[in-house]
Amino acid sequence: MKTATLALLLGLSCFAPLASTAEFPERVDIRYSISSGSLEGEVNNTLRIRHENGIRSYAISSEARAKGLLVLTQPDPILLDSTGRITEAGILRPGRFSDRHGRNIPKVAIFDWDRTLLTLQHKRGEEKKTLPTDIQDKLSLPYSFIFSPPPGKMLELHVTDGRRLESMRYAVGRETIDTPMGRLETFTLTRLTAAEGERDRKIWLAIDHHMLPVRIVTEEKMGIVTDQMVTRISYGEPAADLRQGRLQAAP
After folding, report:
1. Confidence of residue 92 (pLDDT cuts 50, 70, 90)
2. b/e per residue, 50-86, with b = 16+ CB within 10 A?
C-alpha cells in the first residue's frame, strides 16, 4: 500500500528530533512575505494544539493579504482553515478544511473517518468521494511532520483543496536556505508532476523549528509562481504586532 504512513516509517529521525505534543507549544504564529513577480503580500498562519480528555487536536488558520498597488484590485483576504485530530502516531488527521476568497463561495472539505467519506463543497455543488487513508488538505500538508518522522526519499499521498482530490508524489531532499530569520537547515518536498495540468510545488521544512514550513513555492493558475518566505516564528503568545485581527481571536 503506497501511503504517506509508509514513507513516514522510512524517515531519518536522527536529523530532526521529534516534538511530542506535550513539549510543543499550544500556539505558534508564523509570518511570511509572499511575492509573485512585482506583486507582494503577506501571510499570517497560526497553529494551535489542544489536549482534551486524552484527545489531541490541531487547528491551523491562514490569512493572506495583498500589499501595495495589488490592494486596489484584491482588497479581500484569502482565508484558509484546517482542523482535525492528531493520531497516536503523530499524524494529522483532518476533519474539516475551508478556503475563502472574499465574498466568493468557499471551498470546503469534510472528512468523515467513521464512514470513510469525503464531502467536497464548492460553487459547482457538492461531491462525495471515498476517503483515502493517506489524505491531507492543502493547508495541513506542510505541517504533517511536526509530530511524526520526516519522510524517506519519496512521499505519496492524497491532497484536497476543497474542490479536487488529487494523488500526489513528492521527492524528499535536504537543503540549507537563507531566510530573513537566518540560514536554516531544511527538509524539502518537491512535487513530481507527470500529467498535464498538474502544478509544481516545493515546500521547505525547518529542522530546528519543529519541521514547520519556512518556504513554499507554488505554481498557480496560468503558470503564475508564488514564493512564500518566512519572516518570523513566534512560539506561545503572539508578538505584539500580531495581536490584532482575525488570527488573534480567542480559540
Report:
1. very high
2. eeeeeebbbbbbbbbbbeeeeeeeeeebbbbbbbbbb
